[in-house]
Amino acid sequence: MKTKPGQERSGVRARLLDAAVVLFAEQGVAGTTVAEIAKRAGVTSAMVHYYFKTKDQLLDAVVAEKLVGEFIAFIAGELDRGAPDPLALVDQLVWRIVEASDVWPWLPPLWVREVISQGGALREKLIQRVDLGKPERFKAGLAAAQKAGRVNPGINPQLTFMSIMVLTMLPLSMAKDWDRIPLIGRVSKQDLGRHVVALLQHGLAAAPAKTQGRKA
C-alpha cells in the first residue's frame, strides 16, 4: 500500500522534529545546525527549510509540539485526574515525570539546557505557550491544605511545582552518567523516584506540634 503524499509529508516533518530535539538535547540549540538536523532525519537541508522557513520557526514547533504538545500534556493529564490530597498528587507527578523520561529520553537534558538554564533558547517560548491554569490550581490546592494544617507551614506553595520539576529533571538529565559519578553510583530511575517522593512527602507533611523550627 502506497503512502499518500500528505502522510509522507507529515512523516518527514515528524522526523525532523524528532531529530531536532535529540540533537538539541545532546549539543544545545546554538550548537546544532540545520544541516545536522537534516542528516539525522535522512533528508536534505532544503527539506528542513521547506517545513520550517527559519530555525526560529523550528524552535516554535519544538516548543508547541514536543514540549507542550507531548510532555506538558502528559503531566497536565495527571493534574486533571489528580487526587484531592495534594501529597498524593505530588507522588503522582513525580512518577509521571520519571515515566516521561523513559518515553522521551531527550527530554531531561533538553529541559535543563534550554529551559532551566539562564539564556536557554526555549525558555521564553515555553513561558508564552504554557497554560498556567493547572499549576495554579495545584498551588491553590496546596495552599488550602496548608491552611487546614495538612501541609507543612514552612512550604511555599508558589515554589512547590518548580521544586518537583527541578528535583526530577536535573538528576534525570544526567541519568546515563550516574554510575560514573562517585556520589551517586549505581541507582535506577525508580530509586530516584522513591527518593524524590520521600523527600517531598516529608518536607510537605505538617510538622508535629511540639517540633521546634529553626530560628531565622
SSE series:
HHHHHHHHHH
Full CATH superfamily name of the domain at 55-204: Tetracycline Repressor, domain 2
- Helix fraction by DSSP (H/I, runs of at least 4): 55-70%
Seen as an oligomer or otherwise, the chain set is single chain
Number of DSSP-assigned strands: 0
Number of helices: 10
Poorly predicted residue ranges: 211-216
Overall SS class: mainly alpha
What is the average per-residue confidence, as pLDDT, rounded to a whole number?
87
- How much beta, percentage-wise? under 5%
Write down the overall geometry: globular
Which CATH class of the domain at 55-204 is shown?
Answer: Mainly Alpha
CATH architecture of the domain at 55-204: Orthogonal Bundle
Radius of gyration: 20 Å
Topology-level CATH name of the domain at 55-204: Tetracycline Repressor, domain 2
Task: Give the N-terminus to C-terminus distance in angstroms.
Answer: 71 Å
Report on the biggest sheet: none
